[in-house]
Predict the 3D structure of the following.
Amino acid sequence: NPQVIDKIVNVWEDLRIAHEEGTMTYPFSVRESVNVIKHLNAFPDDGIEDAVDNVIAFDRLDRGLSKHLGGVFSGHGIRISTKGQTFNRKFGDGRVSTPKTRASSPKHGKTDPDNKPHV
Protein backbone atom coordinates (compact mmCIF):
# COMPACT_ATOMS: atom_id res chain seq x y z
CA ASN A 1 0.00 0.00 0.00
CA PRO A 2 1.74 3.23 -1.12
CA GLN A 3 0.10 5.32 1.64
CA VAL A 4 1.50 3.01 4.32
CA ILE A 5 4.97 3.13 2.77
CA ASP A 6 4.79 6.94 2.63
CA LYS A 7 3.75 7.01 6.30
CA ILE A 8 6.69 4.80 7.30
CA VAL A 9 9.10 6.92 5.24
CA ASN A 10 7.81 10.09 6.94
CA VAL A 11 8.13 8.58 10.42
CA TRP A 12 11.69 7.47 9.75
CA GLU A 13 12.51 10.92 8.40
CA ASP A 14 11.31 12.40 11.70
CA LEU A 15 13.38 9.83 13.62
CA ARG A 16 16.45 10.77 11.56
CA ILE A 17 15.88 14.48 12.25
CA ALA A 18 15.43 13.79 15.98
CA HIS A 19 18.77 11.97 15.99
CA GLU A 20 20.52 14.78 14.09
CA GLU A 21 19.10 17.35 16.51
CA GLY A 22 20.31 15.28 19.46
CA THR A 23 16.89 14.55 20.95
CA MET A 24 17.43 10.84 20.29
CA THR A 25 20.74 9.05 20.72
CA TYR A 26 19.89 6.00 18.62
CA PRO A 27 19.99 6.52 14.83
CA PHE A 28 17.02 4.52 13.56
CA SER A 29 18.04 3.21 10.16
CA VAL A 30 16.38 2.52 6.84
CA ARG A 31 16.88 -1.17 7.63
CA GLU A 32 14.31 -0.91 10.42
CA SER A 33 11.78 0.85 8.22
CA VAL A 34 12.28 -1.86 5.58
CA ASN A 35 11.67 -4.48 8.28
CA VAL A 36 8.32 -2.85 9.06
CA ILE A 37 7.35 -3.14 5.38
CA LYS A 38 8.63 -6.73 5.24
CA HIS A 39 6.53 -7.57 8.28
CA LEU A 40 3.46 -6.06 6.65
CA ASN A 41 4.10 -8.05 3.48
CA ALA A 42 4.55 -11.29 5.42
CA PHE A 43 1.63 -10.67 7.80
CA PRO A 44 -0.79 -8.31 6.04
CA ASP A 45 -3.52 -8.82 8.65
CA ASP A 46 -1.30 -7.50 11.47
CA GLY A 47 -1.59 -3.84 10.55
CA ILE A 48 0.97 -1.09 10.81
CA GLU A 49 0.90 -0.84 14.62
CA ASP A 50 1.80 -4.51 15.10
CA ALA A 51 4.48 -4.32 12.42
CA VAL A 52 6.09 -1.29 14.07
CA ASP A 53 5.78 -2.85 17.53
CA ASN A 54 7.54 -5.95 16.21
CA VAL A 55 10.49 -3.93 14.89
CA ILE A 56 10.96 -1.51 17.81
CA ALA A 57 10.04 -3.85 20.68
CA PHE A 58 13.49 -3.73 22.27
CA ASP A 59 13.72 0.06 22.03
CA ARG A 60 10.57 0.44 24.09
CA LEU A 61 12.41 -0.90 27.16
CA ASP A 62 14.02 2.53 27.56
CA ARG A 63 11.30 4.67 29.14
CA GLY A 64 12.55 7.99 27.75
CA LEU A 65 13.07 6.64 24.25
CA SER A 66 9.74 4.85 24.37
CA LYS A 67 7.95 8.07 25.25
CA HIS A 68 9.72 9.93 22.44
CA LEU A 69 8.92 7.17 19.94
CA GLY A 70 5.29 7.25 21.00
CA GLY A 71 5.17 10.97 20.23
CA VAL A 72 6.82 10.61 16.83
CA PHE A 73 4.64 7.70 15.73
CA SER A 74 1.41 9.18 17.09
CA GLY A 75 2.19 12.36 15.12
CA HIS A 76 1.75 10.20 12.04
CA GLY A 77 -1.37 8.43 13.29
CA ILE A 78 0.44 5.26 14.38
CA ARG A 79 -0.31 4.12 17.90
CA ILE A 80 2.48 2.08 19.48
CA SER A 81 2.84 0.42 22.84
CA THR A 82 5.14 2.13 25.30
CA LYS A 83 7.04 0.54 28.19
CA GLY A 84 4.65 -1.20 30.53
CA GLN A 85 1.73 -0.62 28.21
CA THR A 86 0.08 -3.10 25.92
CA PHE A 87 -2.90 -2.80 23.66
CA ASN A 88 -5.63 -5.31 23.09
CA ARG A 89 -5.49 -5.44 19.35
CA LYS A 90 -8.83 -6.33 17.85
CA PHE A 91 -9.62 -8.02 14.61
CA GLY A 92 -12.29 -6.46 12.41
CA ASP A 93 -14.84 -8.96 13.72
CA GLY A 94 -14.21 -7.93 17.36
CA ARG A 95 -12.02 -10.87 18.42
CA VAL A 96 -9.00 -10.01 20.54
CA SER A 97 -5.65 -10.85 18.98
CA THR A 98 -3.64 -13.61 20.58
CA PRO A 99 0.06 -14.39 20.12
CA LYS A 100 0.86 -16.21 16.92
CA THR A 101 1.88 -19.72 17.91
CA ARG A 102 0.99 -23.22 16.83
CA ALA A 103 1.25 -24.58 20.38
CA SER A 104 -1.98 -25.46 22.13
CA SER A 105 -0.36 -25.04 25.54
CA PRO A 106 2.90 -23.76 27.01
CA LYS A 107 5.96 -25.67 25.89
CA HIS A 108 7.85 -27.84 28.34
CA GLY A 109 11.26 -29.26 27.56
CA LYS A 110 12.37 -32.82 28.13
CA THR A 111 13.00 -33.82 31.72
CA ASP A 112 16.46 -35.15 32.51
CA PRO A 113 16.55 -36.60 36.03
CA ASP A 114 20.35 -37.18 35.76
CA ASN A 115 21.03 -33.58 34.61
CA LYS A 116 23.49 -34.74 31.93
CA PRO A 117 25.00 -32.27 29.42
CA HIS A 118 22.88 -31.97 26.27
CA VAL A 119 25.62 -31.05 23.87
